[in-house]
Input
Amino acid sequence: MDDYKNIREEAFEANLEIPKRNLAIYTWGNVSAFDPGKGVFAIKPSGVAYDKLAPSSMVVVDLEGKTVFGTLNPSSDTETHRILYREFSSGASSALRGITHTHSPYATSWAQARKPVPVFGTTHADYGAEPIPCTAYLSEEAVKNNYERETGNLIVETFRLENRDPLRMPMVLVAGHGPFTWGKNAAEAVYHAAVLEEICKIGCFTTLLNPGAEPLPSHIIRKHWERKHGSGASYGQRKS
Output
């Protein structure tokens, strides 16, 4: 019996969305799917092209970093995923079941500029009522210690220092590196990666047209966030 079939298939399908959504070229991205009951996640194998992937090629790793299924090397970003699942998937954040990392050009541009993305308009406010955070650079010591693991620790530290809720803000930019996003499953994590890329693209054009552009007024931000996510949300169709 294959105990990991579902998350391997979920991770496989989500990874195929990366090139479909133009979020990466070649092998510049990865998605993982998490099973909190088993304490494992399935992730793309390192350096394998998207058109060469299959559910059976997904690598399953536990929260101690041990490969429990698969013969291929897991993504080089596996340690970052592991830290985020370990730190962000408990208590109120237990709904976090998928993580995506890409080098999509607009989001990566903001990361390389080391700038959080302000809430310039309602497109952003629909998905986050606050700026998209950007971490500091990793220290030289952290890079020497374990680069990927310390990247995860840096993201976690950034959210804690800024008192961020990873469910309300499912996106982050790692300075000089690129974006990480997450969601209630692997598909939603990729969805948020695509949304983040579009927000960053719009933000780039906004600052080009008006270098002094200011964030949207808070009452408009609040309205757009609440109509999608508030207790009286009106967006979409009611479930029968």
